[in-house]
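Hi,

Apologies if this is the wrong queue. I'm a grad student, and the batch job for Protein translocase subunit SECA2, chloroplastic-like from Prunus avium produced an output file that my downstream script rejects. I'm not sure whether the problem is my script or the file. Here is the sequence I used:
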Amino acid sequence: MQAVVDEIVFANVNALKHPRNWSLGKLLKEFMTISGKLLDDSFAGITEEALLKSLAHSHELNSVDLDDIHLPNLPRPPKAFRGIRKKSSSLKRWLAICSDDLTKNGRYHATTSLLRKYLGGFLIVSYLDVIEKSGYDDAYVKEVERAVLVKTLDCFWRDHLVNMNRLCSHIPNCVNYIHVYVDFVKS
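Support response: The file is valid. Your script probably expects a header line. Output copied below for reference.
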């Protein structure tokens, strides 16, 4: 979920420019689209102006509490990090994904990172909240998540094979290119 949020943020934000020059309307629209019905009604009312105002205030913050990542004047994630704390390894993985190394350096580097962490955290915690309210046990949820992940990887792998097959049909001596590609992937 964080990787998808990062894609949306990086496509609409530039750490070198002031947030008023970012595509915040597009960012919110894309975020709401991928969120589907996970988010509660408190997030639905966020406007481009409110997000811009909040980002302007966040630039003044001195530090960020990892237990309570939020943007001023915007809704807080439901019971922040409750589900992620069940396993410390999950929290460590999430924090590694949110590494600030992914964000381009610039004057608004910290603001960009905070936006990524806020949106990612809000989505993840909202998902965990829905799972908890569903009443399903952890083992069942893990099995469903694993099945979805395997199915997704399988679809991407099939698409890749189809694309490689198309490539081979258009390029003479394609077998040589595939061997070079396979050697590259192995290294």
